[in-house]
Amino acid sequence: MSHAFYVYSSYGFAAIIVIAITGWTWIDGRLRQRELATLEASGIHRRSVHKTEGDTK
């Protein structure tokens, strides 16, 4: 094995891992957004949405 093969394969492997983690995060974010939309459509709302300016809690 040459040095160049080792370097290029290492960079390729790292790129695949970064792309996989980025894709996984993006897909999971989309699924969580859908889940929140479903919950809000069923009447369950986030507490942070209903806070008023006078609330201290």
What does this structure look like?
- The radius of gyration is 22 Å and the shape is rod-shaped.
- It has one helix at 3-41.
- The model has no long low-confidence stretch (mean pLDDT 87).
- It contains 1 helix and no strands.
- It starts with a helix and ends in a 16-residue tail after the last helix.
- By secondary structure, the protein is mostly helical.
- The longest helix is centred in the middle third of the chain and has 39 residues, at 3-41.
Rounded average pLDDT: 87
Low-confidence stretches: none
Q: Kindly, what is the distance between the CA atoms of the first and last residues, rounded to a whole number of angstroms?
A: 63 Å
**H/E element order:** H
Measured as a percent range, the helix fraction is: 55-70%
* Global Rg: 22 Å
Helix count? 1
Q: Would you report the number of β strands?
A: 0
Strand % is under 5%
Largest sheet: none
Class derived from helix and strand content: mainly alpha
Shape: rod-shaped
